[in-house]
Amino acid sequence: MPTSLMDYLRILPEIILTVFGALILLVExxxxxGSRGRIAGALAFIGSLLALAAGISLIRxxxxxxxxxxxxxxxxxxFHILILATVAVVTLLAMDFLRTxxxxxxxxxxLLLFAAVGMGxxxxxxxxxxxxxxxxxxxxxxxxxxxxxxxxxxSTEAALKYLLLGxxxxxxxxxxxxxxxxxxxxxxxxxxxxxxxxxxAAGGLALGSLxxxxxxxxxxxxxxxxxxxxxxxxxxxxxxxxxxxxxxxxSTAAKAAAFVILLRVFYVALRGYSQQxxxxxxxxxxxxxxxxxxxxxxxxxxxxxxxxxxxxxxxxILVAFAVIAQNPAPRVLPGHAPVSGILAGPGVGAIxxxxxxxxxxxxxAFAVIAxxxxxxxxxxxxxxxxxxxxRHPGLALAMTLFLLSLLGVPFTGGFLAKLYIFQSAFQxxxxxxxxxxxxxxxxxxxxxxxxxxxxxxxxxxxxxxPIASSPAWTLGAACCAVVVLWLGIxxxxxxxxxxx
Amino acid sequence: xxxxxxxxxxxxxxxAGFLLNLVFxxxxxxxxxxxxxxxxxxxxxxxxxxVAHRWSGAPYIEPHATWFLAGPLRVSFGLFLDPLSLLxxxxxxxxxxxxxxxxxxxxxEEGGFYRYFSLLNLFLFFxxxxxxxxxxxxxxxxxxxxxxxxYILIGFFFRRDAAARAGIKAFVVNRIxxxxxxxxxxxxxxRFGSFNYQTVFARAATLPxxxxxxxxxxxxxxLLLVGALGKSAQLPLYIWLPDAMEGPTPVSAxxxxxxxxxxxxxxxxxxxxxxxxxxxxxxLVLAIGALTAIFAASIGVLQRxxxxxxxxxxxxxxxxxxMACGVAAYGAGVFHLMTHAFFKALxxxxxxxxxxxxxGEQDIFRIRSLAPGGLKRYAPITFWTFVxxxxxxxxxxxxxxxxxKDLILERVFAATSGAGRIWWALGLVAAFLTAFYMFRALxxxxxxxxxxxxxxxxxxxxxxxxxxxxxxxxxxxxxxxRHALPHESPAVMTIPLLGLAVLAALGGYLNWGDxxxxxxxxxxxxTPNAVAYRPLPPFLTAGVQHALMALTIAVALGGLLLxxxxxxxxxxxxxxxxxxxxxxxxxxxxxxxxxxxxxxVLITPLRAISHWVLWRGVDDGLIAGSLRGIGGGLLKTSDxxxxxxxxxxxxxxxxxxxxxxxxxxxxxxxxxR
Amino acid sequence: xxxxxxxxxxxGILFTLGVAGFIVKSDLISVFISIELMxxxxxxxxxxFSHYLRDMxxxxxxxxxxxxxxxxxxxxxxxxxxxxxxxxxxxxDEMDLMKH
Lengths: 500, 673, 100
What we know:
heterotrimer; A: mainly alpha; B: two-stranded antiparallel sheet; two-stranded antiparallel sheet; 2% strand
């Protein structure tokens, strides 16, 4: 099938990101001293906005491209918008962080854009090879981003751990894909789904026993990426060591993209085996929520605490995956349904909503941490946040908002997101799971609120250097805060818009 | 089509006050910040009165934008007005406004004036959302919101560990309650397909009354009760309220006495239809209410910190409201809620005035020794209003508390029989204790020490009471001039006192001829025709009623008399009595060791788990930890393995590999099965 | 002709060896080689499947895997150099700045 212009149009966001990423690298070399970073930052911001516009314009061009490798459907458009908006916000947040820390700036933005390219392919790929490549593009860029403070031992150690364990997990993922390919004879997700369904109907298939193994191995690889227990072990170290903004980025956009793969592989390709993989999700959900929350209780480093918290958050999302496995609504596939049908699925809407809220609130929290950590990221422990309410009321207020949302207090997005998931679990008769999730939110209150207590009810400890003002950062963080509040008070807009 | 009442204005004005002070508070001075805070709460009161004036009397639904719509889940911002929410709205805005006014004086020397008022407005907003909500989810949102606002108000102004801990304790205990509440909400949705009051009640009303503990409505009622126990500080979740007294006194008056803590009672009364269908759940409500009433009252008897006395009395009084709900006398419960809001707010504000006068002293015995000749000489308005409130809470005839408490006891007596009368008897004893400890507080605080009273009366053990250690709720007592003579509070503080005193004295007459009960009755019945106002059983003749009344009065006067004898006439007697029964005294004085119990059973294990998982688990190698659990035979191997691979990165890989093995083995087992 | 299962079992063994090597070895370079072993085990089964299914996709996939492995190795070595500059060691057991 010859490629047409339409094919390129459907990967336009990726093309734009790649072009701008390359452009930044070129400009970085050519431009002179002082203006370098500013130009790079501006280019990255413009590039991400253009890509965002391209992503939004995809609404008009649903369909497949490149012989079915790329699928532009509601899920991929939705996550394109989410990821690209995240990139734009991270760009804003990073502008002053990079200057004050004295890092080369161009590469940072270029890597950010390249990572987004990978994520873009992850969410729109309908082909396991492309999925794998997208995953690797985003992962390799993230490894380098983690090591960005390369003179800091913690940063490089985090990168090394991330790289080694990430490659380790990727190998599992790859092995799973291979077995899936062997059993079904295809690497295209819808084809795999049809082939498995057809062969099951015809009375089993020759290599059918490989499918559950493939599912298990793929789950290991993706479970690692979304930091689901028991594959979450890397998360605390990497999140603590990496620069706070990078952590914010990989804990949100990268995780969301990996969840989309999980959704596509299990919901589209392995739908017929939902009774088997249901228990994988169930166990992982309970382990992630419980280990994450209990692990976070005694942390003194805020980054590490939020790392454990993000493990727990992944657990809540996995609850929704268990719901999907219970109710594999056969007519409503993310790959095929009209856009409005997506939210009719009992768990899919909850996943999309949760990931959106989670991205905004987690990125916001890490943004505040990056700001308070100040030059060289020296101040990330809980005691450094003592008295923040007095020193920087705005920062403290923003942090309070994000923490409350992570906790799930009403009128923040986090509340409705959790409600949506718990409600769907209840309706799928997963009452045990819902109760465990609720118990976990009780445990979580303790460590989230402890930060609020430190910010407002403790005097500052020691002399802390002042935090320089940063308009770009403020704009970026305000975006996160607005999204958290908006989705907490009037989420109807988002859901309506999705339904259109 | 009924007229549009613009109900949203009432909470909306409070929200506006919050936002204005939040955004501009730093720019403008104290006077404007205070004016905005008080002004908007006053406007909310006016709006509430306006709504009440124009309301036709029929249940009124004000639909607003859809809040959340996802699949079957449809929740709107709809507000709802019926007699119950109207009364609650008026109580909240009325008492709220007076307390705002009072705060102008009380907080005048504190920092963060604008933040205080913005948060107080925010609290009112959430509280009004709670009472005006048209569905359970919006109620829950307000419920969580008041919890959070109170949590921040407890600890906001006092950079003390005790305050911070109290704040967290309040929130976490409330989360335990919320856990039950949320489960109940999910069940409601699963059962009735909606969160809307009217849909839920209309459908619930068609179900049969359940017997036993397993019916769906009973389970829902029990789960909602768990939420109410947390919010309204009943056994066993009451432990957060006494500690919450670390906050500023007006906050205690507004949140921990008049409004927020009674939200549980409001919620139960609101869910009357559900509770009507479950006698089992109701009997539990009755039992918990009665036990809490007597339990908290008996602790209150020995407290020395004036605010803690009031805290325990709040717990005890809410116990009465629960008792009323337990016998389906929701109207009586809400009536007591109202009178309690008046007299308890007055007591707290009076206590605040005392603390203000004494420059931060909260120990009633030290107040007595610091005010030569008795505090009543220096602060007459505070004294007389405090007398009225004490009479009201003790059930002295003619004052508001007497009417509501008598009504509750009468209804409990009427609804029970045989052994069930024990709850009534407990309520009666609690009424006696209440009168005793409240008059004790009054006599000790305001009167000069009688000749021959020991300096540390009723305190033979010599250990420093918890209340005294945490004294100083009013700013930093260290900085206050301790030797200065006590003084009366400024007019801005005494005017609210006088206003509340009028309400506390006369509020009981609102129910003259059971008018209030008739007014509220439609709120507890889903169908307009059915009369939910329950007639009294035939055996409760006028004679019996009068006898009960006389008993209640006798008990209240008895408590008064005992306090008079022990703390005015024969001051030594109290100490002698205490010496006679040291074991019981210590048990009561240490609040039955409940805090210690919770520490041992809940907090310590949780910490231990955290520590165990972290220290043993992730770092030392998770395989080692998890294999250890499998069996002793593998223990050595695991230790050997752990020694072999002490590097953490490799243990992480092992953890991942173990997880992979588990997944593969599970999936393989499924295939081969 | 050698049946498919032989290839698959061999590939499984190689993969397991790679996993074991990753866990057991303590210097960075060996760990890296273990990852390569795992990837090549996958490549082996890909080619076997490709042959068995008479489908070129598997072969194609192998090339992508090799490219990705090379990219990963390049980035990995760069990061290792950064780590060694900071820490002066190649031993994984000393990489425990962050724990608990």
